[in-house]
Write a sequence for this structure.
C-alpha cells in the first residue's frame, strides 16, 4: 500500500528518531570506548611510571649502605631522601581510585594488586626505616668512631639507637608484608619483582640487625653507663682447642666513658692449675672433655660452648687476681692479621715489623724457632697483641678497614664475645660472636665440627683442614641422610722430627711420635637427628658416641704422620623431609678452605 500524504511525514519522523537514537547510542559507545581506552592508558602509563620508580628506588638501599660504610654520611643521606621520594611516587601512582577499580578485572587485576602492594611495602619501608637512617647517616661519619688517644666517643652510637631500632622494626614489618603477598596467577615479571624485593629486604635485615645489636651493646661495653673490665683471651691455634686454641696470654682491658686501657697482662700458663673445676661442669662436658676444661686456663676452650669457656675464664681470673670481670673476649693471631690491614705495619719491642702478611708465620711458626722457653714465646705473643691493641686504641687505624677486618674475623669465629650482663648476652646470643653451639631452624640444618689437639705440642700449624657437607633423601619416607666430611692432612716436612723444635713436635712426651699431629675431631648434630656413626677412609671404625646438651656427638681421634692424610665422614638421619640449606660451624683453624658441597649417593 502506497503511503498517503498524511502518513508519509509521520514515517519520516519515526525514521529520523530511530536514526537519532542510533547516533546517540553510537556516540555513547564511542564515548565509553574512548573513556575505556583512556582509563587503560591512564593505568598503563601509571604502571610504567611506577615500575620505573620502583626499579630506581630498590638499588638505592644498597648504594646508601655502601656510602655509610665508606664514611660518606652526606651522600648516604641524599641517597636515602631520593629513595624515599621515588618510593612515595610509586605508591601514589598505584593507589588512585582508577587503579583500584581495575584490580577487579579478571587476570589483569591480580597483577595490579600485587604491584600496588609492592609499592606500598617500599614506601612504608622508606618512610619508617630508610628516612630515619638517612638522617642519622647525614650527621655522623665512620671517622667519628676512630679512637683518639684511647677514647671512643660513644655519644653518636647512643644518639643513633632510636633511628636504627625504627629501621630494624620497619624491615621486619616489610618482611611480613612481602611474605603475605600472593603471587599465584601473576605474570612472571610481577612475581619476579616480589622475589627480588624479598631478597633485598632479607639482605638488608641481616645488616640492620647487626648494626642494631652493635649500637645497643657497644656503648655499655665501652663504659658509657659505668666502668667495665674485660678479660681478653689470646687463643693460639698452633695447639688447637674447640673454640680456637690454648690460651697463650690473657689481658685485662678497662673501659669507662669510651676510654680504653690495657691495665694488666698474664701468660695463660701462669694461672694456677686447680685440683678440681673452678665451676661445676655439665655432665656432658665432663664426659667428653674431662674436668681439665675447668681446672686450667689453657684448657677452657676444650668445650665448643664459648659462653661456658668464658664463665670458666672469668672465675679463674677472679681466683688469680681478685677481680670479677664483666665479660670475656677472645681473639686469635689470624684475626690480628686481619686487623693489621687496618693499622698498617707495627714495630714490636723485639724490632720485628708485624704486618698482615707475616702475622701468622711470625706468631705461630717463627717464634718457636727463635725462642726455646715457653715463657719467652708467650711474652712475644703478648707483646704483639698489646702492640696491635695500642695501635687501634690510639687511633692509628683506618676505621672502614677495621670494621671489615672485625666482620671477617667474627664470621670466621676468630673473635668471640661474652657478657656477664644478661641483657647484653641475650643480644649477642644469636650472633657468631657468641660462640654457642649451632642452632638449626626450618630453613637451615646446622652442624658443628670441633678439633682439640692431642699431640700436646704446637703442630696445629701443619694441620690442613678441608670440609664438605651434603644431604640425600634415599628412603621411601623421605627422611634425609646428612653427612659432614672432613679431610685432615699433616703438611709437616718428612724430617719434622729432627728439624722442628722439640716444643713444636712434643718430642714424644705424650706418646705421639715426633712430627705427627694427633687430633680429636668431634662432630655435632641437632638433637632431633639420629646418629648413624662414621667412616674413616671409607671404612667403619670405632668412635665415641656421646651427647652434649642434647646434641648428637661423634668423636674420633686421628693420628697423622708427616704427609699423611685421612678422610672422616660423619652420618646422621633427619626426622622428616627437608629441602633447606646445610651449614657447618667449626673450630677456626689456621689453614682451612671454604666448606664444599658433598654429593651423597643413595
Amino acid at each position: 500500500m502506497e503511503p498517503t500524504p498524511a502518513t508519509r511525514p509521520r514515517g519520516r519522523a519515526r525514521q529520523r528518531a530511530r536514526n537519532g537514537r542510533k547516533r546517540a547510542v553510537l556516540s555513547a559507545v564511542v564515548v565509553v570506548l574512548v573513556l575505556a581506552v583512556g582509563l587503560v592508558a591512564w593505568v598503563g602509563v601509571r604502571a610504567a611510571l611506577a615500575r620505573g620508580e620502583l626499579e630506581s628506588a630498590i638499588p638505592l638501599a644498597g648504594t646508601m649502605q655502601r656510602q655509610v660504610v665508606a664514611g660518606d654520611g652526606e651522600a648516604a643521606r641524599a641517597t636515602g631522601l631520593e629513595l624515599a621520594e621515588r618510593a612515595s611516587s610509586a605508591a601514589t601512582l598505584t593507589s588512585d581510585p582508577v587503579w583500584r577499580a581495575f584490580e577487579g578485572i579478571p587476570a589483569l587485576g591480580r597483577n595490579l594488586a600485587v604491584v600496588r602492594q609492592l609499592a606500598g611495602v617500599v614506601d612504608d619501608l622508606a618512610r619508617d626505616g630508610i628516612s630515619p637512617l638517612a638522617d642519622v647517616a647525614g650527621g655522623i661519619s665512620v671517622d667519628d668512631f676512630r679512637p683518639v688517644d684511647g677514647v671512643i666517643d660513644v655519644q653518636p652510637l647512643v644518639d643513633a639507637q632510636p633511628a636504627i631500632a625504627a629501621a630494624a622494626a620497619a624491615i621486619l614489618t616489610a618482611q611480613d608484608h612481602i611474605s603475605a603477598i600472593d603471587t599465584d596467577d601473576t605474570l612472571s615479571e610481577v612475581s619476579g619483582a616480589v622475589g627480588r624485593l624479598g631478597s633485598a629486604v632479607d639482605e638488608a635485615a641481616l645488616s640492620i640487625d647487626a648494626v642494631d645489636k652493635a649500637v645497643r651493646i657497644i656503648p655499655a661495653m665501652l663504659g658509657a653507663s659505668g666502668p667495665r673490665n674485660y678479660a681478653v683471651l689470646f687463643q693460639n691455634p698452633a695447639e688447637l682447642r674447640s673454640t680456637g686454641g690454648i690460651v697463650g696470654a690473657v689481658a685485662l682491658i678497662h673501659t669507662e666513658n669510651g676510654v680504653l686501657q690495657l691495665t694488666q697482662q698474664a701468660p695463660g700458663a701462669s694461672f694456677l692449675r686447680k685440683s678440681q673445676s673452678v665451676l661445676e661442669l655439665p655432665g656432658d662436658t665432663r664426659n667428653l672433655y674431662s674436668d681439665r676444661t675447668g681446672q686450667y686456663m689453657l684448657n677452657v676452650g676444650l668445650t665448643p660452648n664459648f659462653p661456658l669457656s668464658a664463665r670458666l675464664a672469668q672465675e679463674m681470673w677472679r681466683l688469680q687476681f681478685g677481680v670479677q670481670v664483666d665479660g670475656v673476649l677472645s681473639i686469635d693471631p689470624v684475626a690480628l692479621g686481619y686487623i693489621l690491614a687496618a693499622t698498617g705495619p707495627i714495630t714490636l719491642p723485639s724490632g720485628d715489623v708485624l704486618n698482615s702478611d707475616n702475622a701468622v708465620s711470625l706468631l705461630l711458626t717463627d717464634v718457636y724457632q727463635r725462642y726455646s722457653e715457653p715463657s719467652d714465646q708467650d711474652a712475644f705473643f703478648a707483646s704483639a697483641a698489646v702492640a696491635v691493641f695500642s695501635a687501634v686504641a690510639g687511633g692509628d687505624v683506618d676505621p672502614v678497614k677495621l670494621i671489615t677486618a672485625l666482620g671477617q674475623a667474627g664470621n670466621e669465629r676468630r673473635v668471640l664475645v661474652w657478657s656477664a650482663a644478661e641483657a647484653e648476652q641475650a643480644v649477642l646470643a644469636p650472633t657468631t660472636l657468641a660462640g654457642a653451639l649451632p642452632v638449626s631452624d626450618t630453613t637451615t640444618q646446622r652442624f658443628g665440627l670441633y678439633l682439640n689437639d692431642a699431640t700436646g705440642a704446637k703442630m696445629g700449624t701443619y694441620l690442613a683442614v678441608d670440609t664438605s657437607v651434603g644431604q640425600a633423601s634415599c628412603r621411601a619416607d623421605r627422611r634425609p641422610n646428612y653427612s659432614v666430611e672432613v679431610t685432615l692432612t699433616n703438611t709437616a716436612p718428612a724430617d719434622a722430627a729432627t728439624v722442628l723444635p722439640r716444643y713444636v713436635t712434643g718430642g714424644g712426651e705424650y706418646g705421639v711420635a715426633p712430627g705427627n699431629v694427633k687430633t680429636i675431631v668431634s662432630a655435632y648434630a641437632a638433637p632431633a637427628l639420629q646418629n648413624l656413626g662414621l667412616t674413616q677412609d671409607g671404612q667403619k671404625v670405632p668412635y665415641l658416641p656421646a651427647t652434649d646438651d642434647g646434641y648428637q656427638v661423634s668423636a674420633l681421634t686421628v693420628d697423622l704422620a708427616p704427609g699423611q692424610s685421612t678422610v672422616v665422614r660423619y652420618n646422621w638421619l633427619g626426622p622428616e623431609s627437608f629441602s633447606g640449606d646445610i651449614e657447618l660451624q667449626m673450630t677456626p683453624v689456621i689453614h682451612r678452605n671454604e666448606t664444599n658441597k658433598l654429593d651423597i649417593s643413595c
Observations:
- The longest helix spans residues 8-69.
- Confidence is low (pLDDT under 50) at residues 28-39.
